[in-house]
Amino acid sequence: MTAPQNTAGAFANIRRQFPILDRAVHGKPLTYFDSAATAQKPRTVIDAESRYYETINAGVHRGAHELAAQATLAFEEARRRAARLVGAEGREGCEEIVVTAGATAGFNLLATAIGNASAGAGRPESKRFALRPGDRIVVSQAEHHSVLLPFQELCARTGAELSWLGTDADGSIRSQDADAIITPRTKIVAVTLVSNVTGAVTDLAPIVERAHAVGALVVLDLCQATPHLPVDVHALDVDFACWSAHKMYGPTGVGFLYGRRELLEALPPANFGGSMVELAWLDRPARYMDPPERFEAGTQPLAQVVAAGVASEWLRNISLDAVAEHERAVTQELLRVGDVPGVRILGKSGLDGRIGTVSFDVEGVHPHDVGQFLDAQGIAIRTGHHCAQPIHRRFGLFASNRASVGVYNTVEEARRLIDAVAQVRPYFLGVKA
After folding, report:
1. How many CB atoms are located within 10 Å of the residue 333 CB?
2. CA 130, 134, 135, 137 torsion: positive or negative?
3. How confident is the model at residue 2, as a pLDDT?
4. Is residue 6 scored above 80 in pLDDT?
5. 192 by DSSP, 3-state: which?
6. Which of 329, 416, 353, 330 has its CA nearest to residue 380?
7. Which of 145, 283, 383, 389 shows the smallest number of beta carbons within 10 Å?
8. b/e 109-134 (16+ beta carbons within 10 angstroms → b)
9. Cβ distance 65 to 58 under 8 Å?
10. What value does the mean pLDDT take over residues 352-360?
11. What is the reported pTM?
């Protein structure tokens, strides 16, 4: 894996791989700071999806003809590339990676499968996942709704209790409270590695250590980590993890679920249909396939999966260490938005322990107005609660503005955003800049 030198020229070349960044918005050059919602796609990813349809489009894991064989090879290579991106290749090949429709689908798959085990479904070994009244599931105050809600609903179905780790004043998950919150009754701990609101990187080791000490499973949200930081799920010692392709420069509608092989083997299926059953009868229960196929019912979005594999390899070839270093320079400039009068950053105001996701509040101006003002100048940010309402309440807000850095952003773009934000309060409130 070769990494480019960390120079403006190297990343300028990377930026040129994104055709959408050549367009204008409202007559202004596009400045895209909404990668935490969905990242733009490099030409190689766009071409990979089209090339699949043009050359090998066919069903995978079925059919004896040449197109089907080539499509299956491409699909499995994508799985292998996704495994390599998160350090999951090697111990079990790439059989610890399940293809999903996104991280949301992955978390729901887990919650549904565990709920099925709690209802008595699956093999005898599935009982290890069963939840009962009095058991506990722990999340955090910083979780995206795609983590919070599936496990909250699982509690409602099984009688388990939901508890949570709070956050510090800067939005960081209070890992120091792990011993108190994660009790011997805890069966699942589901947390994010990186907050999609504050950009804070979770101090994960104390949480994992305590969870495993009491026999709980650790489920990790990697959505905001995989595009920005080197990740090794084996080294992190987590049991399950989910992430989405569209946040890491891949297509929409695709994600991946990592699970320890022995856990996937014991987990009952969540969805049922073709491609996940080995033998089916009318007069007796079906016998389901081994993982990962057991969790991949129906036809996958095949072209998109192949393109997601290309995005995974593309990121590895850039080197995520180089990506993190480049984004750190852009983030350092972007954090100067907190120096604008009337602007408050939600979370850390410095570089340590964070990525380039910077949410902020403009005093006296609704985030939607801020977003529209910036959009008129060609600057795209996210406004709203970012599907994470509890942590917004922690900051005393219902919504915020979020600027999030991608591999293609520049220091000059960060300055452009800050200059635009500095005009917001004078425009709406008539205050002096």
Report:
1. 19
2. positive
3. 42
4. no
5. strand
6. 416
7. 283
8. bbbbbbbbbbeeebeeebeebbbeee
9. yes
10. 97
11. 0.95
Q: Which CATH architecture has domain 8-41+319-429?
A: Alpha-Beta Complex (3.90)
CB distance 187 to 136 below 8 Å: yes
Give 4's pLDDT tier (boundaries 50, 70, 90).
very low
Reading the block at residue 193, the tokens are 């590695």
Residue range(s) occupied by CATH 3.40.640.10 in the chain: 49-316
Phi, psi of 167, deg, nearest 5: -125, 155
Give the span between the Cα atoms of 187 and 4, in whole angstroms.
44
Phi, psi of 29 (to 5 degrees): -60, 135
Catalytic residues: 387
Q: What is the mean pLDDT of residues 243-261?
A: 98
pLDDT band at 62 (very low <50, low <70, confident <90, very high): confident
Tokens of 10: 């190297």
Confidence category of residue 8, pLDDT binned at 50, 70, 90: low
Q: What whole-number distance in Å separates Cα of residue 79 and Cα of residue 89?
A: 10
3-state secondary structure 14-27: HHCCCHHHHCEECC
Burial-class residue 81 by CB neighbours within 10 Å (0-12, 13-18, 19+).
Answer: buried
Look up residue 290 and give its DSSP letter: P
Task: Count the neighbouring beta carbons within 10 Å of the beta carbon of residue 406.
Answer: 24
Question: What does the mean pLDDT of the chain come to?
Answer: 95
Q: What is the DSSP string of 85-123?
A: HTT-SBTTBTTTEEEESSHHHHHHHHHHHHHHHHTT-S-
Cα 141 from Cα 370, distance rounded (Å): 26
> Which amino acid appears at position 47 of this protein?
D
In the sheet that holds 186-192, the strands lie side by side as: 97-100, 255-259, 240-244, 217-221, 186-192, 136-140, 161-165
Tell me where in the chain the CATH 3.90.1150.10 domain(s) lie.
Answer: 8-41+319-429
Distance CA 383, CA 372 (A): 9
For residue 315, what is the enclosing H or E element? helix 302-318
Q: Please state which of the four CATH numbers 3.40.50.2000, 3.40.640.10, 3.30.70.20, 3.30.70.141 is assigned to the domain occupying 49-316.
A: 3.40.640.10
- Residue 123: what pLDDT? 87
Distance from the Cα of residue 276 to its chain's centroid: 25
